[in-house]
Amino acid sequence: MTAFEVLLQSGGFHSGASNTICDVMGVRVGHQNLRGNGRCTGVTAVLPHGGDLYRTPVRAGCAVLNGFGKSAGLVQVEELGEIETPVLLTNTFGVGTCSNALIRRAIAQNSAIGRGQATVNPLVLECNDGKVNDIQQLAVSETDAEAAIAAADNMFEQGTIGAGSGMKTFGFAGGIGSASRLIQVGATEYTLGSLVLSNFGEAGELRVYGDRVPTPDALPEPDTGSIIILLATDAPMESRQLTRLARRSAAALGRLGSYLGHQSGDIALAFSTANQIERGSLEIHPVQSICESRMNTFFKAGVESVEAAILGALWYGTSHEAYDGTRLPTFRDAYQMQTQN
User: Does the domain spanning 3-277+291-340 belong to CATH 3.30.70.120?
Assistant: First the structure.
């Protein structure tokens, strides 16, 4: 483990065993990459649990920090406070295709969907990778979405991989990052994990734990990118509490130097794997929730985890050739050069 990777685990909380969102038991992540002929994109799937999410949804909350985005499914999450499909991350023009894949998957598991049963709410979140990927090719297919779900595991790569393949963060290559933090509440230890699809930040404005890291040869450009933030926990929380948790993730963006600029789509989604109840099995749901007076600890751990996840996306990012032949600089090279001088 490098010194910087150790730094990613530092802060006021201990990290979980893998320091990823998969430290929350049951959560799995998978990638599908598309490369070549101008393509540098993909799909990343996040599964809150390994069962049928339509039958056994998880409680969730969301926060639109900056609404310049084309995601699908957020309106129903906000209304009902639950997630009923895997969460797919992809590029802006892949949202419709990934939605279709999730609908077909849900119907294959539940043949009465839309025919006597309620329709399904596919949840797809996006960032624009058009600086690197030739997004006009509409390259993402339903097969790619299915492959990302099939690849889901509790170990996964970070950086410019899957949906993060063509993403840019503060002028550097960097897309998928993840981290986790352990939280003690009384005699019980809970886990809070985060995963980001990072594509935001003005070049030259990045701050790593307060220290500015300039982008080599950066051209002035505004903070017009986007970020998708996923937060998962095994702590029992109701949807309102999860929405509060999601909203606090904006503090991590500010720590790193973002001002959530115009045309930046910044969206946070939080879910809990606790209180899982099969749909329609009970008239009244006996659920538990964290005491409100303990939420500050989760807020703090969430901000710390998201900050580390974004830095992880940068650290593990590698430079892929863009469709116009250019390459983004890598944060690792810039950071190591700065620390050596």
Answer: no
CA angle 207, 211, 216 (to 5 degrees): 65
The residue from 165, 180, 198, 264 that is catalytic is 264
Angle between helices 95-109 and 142-150 (to 10 degrees): 60
> What backbone torsions phi and psi does residue 8 show, to the nearest 5 degrees?
-65, -20
Tell me the per-residue pLDDT of 104-132, one tens digit each, with 9 for 90 and over: 999 999 999 999 999 999 999 999 999 99
- Determine whether 264 is an active site residue: yes
Number of C-beta neighbours around residue 134 at 10 A = 18
Is 249 marked active-site?
no
Distance CA 310, CA 6 (A): 15
DSSP 211: E
Segment holding 177, helix H or strand E: strand 176-185
186's CB contacts (< 8 A; 6+ apart) are none
Q: Which of 129, 194, 266, 272 is catalytic?
A: 266
CB 33 within 8 A of CB 153: no
* Overall pTM > 0.85: yes
Is 129 annotated in the active site?
Answer: no
Q: Which helix (H) or strand (E) is 28 found in, with range?
A: strand 28-36
The per-residue pLDDT for range 180-196, each reduced to its tens digit, is 999 999 999 999 999 99
Distances (CA, A) of 329 to 99, 177, 226, 263, 315: 33, 17, 19, 23, 12
Rounded Cα distance between 7 and 66, Å, is 29
Query: How far apart are the C-alpha atoms of 276 and 278, rounded to whole Å?
Result: 7
Dihedral angle of Cα 44, 45, 46, 49, to the nearest 10 degrees: -160
If 0-12 CB within 10 Å is exposed, 13-18 middle and 19+ buried, where does residue 299 land? middle
Q: CB count, 10 Å around CB of 318?
A: 14
Among residues 178, 198, 226, 289, the one annotated as catalytic is 226
Instruction: Determine contact, residues 83/77, Cβ cutoff 8 Å.
Output: yes
Phi and psi, residue 308, nearest 5°? -65, -35
SS (H, E, C) 169-206: ECCEECCEEEEEEEEEECCEEEEEEEEEEEECCCCCCC
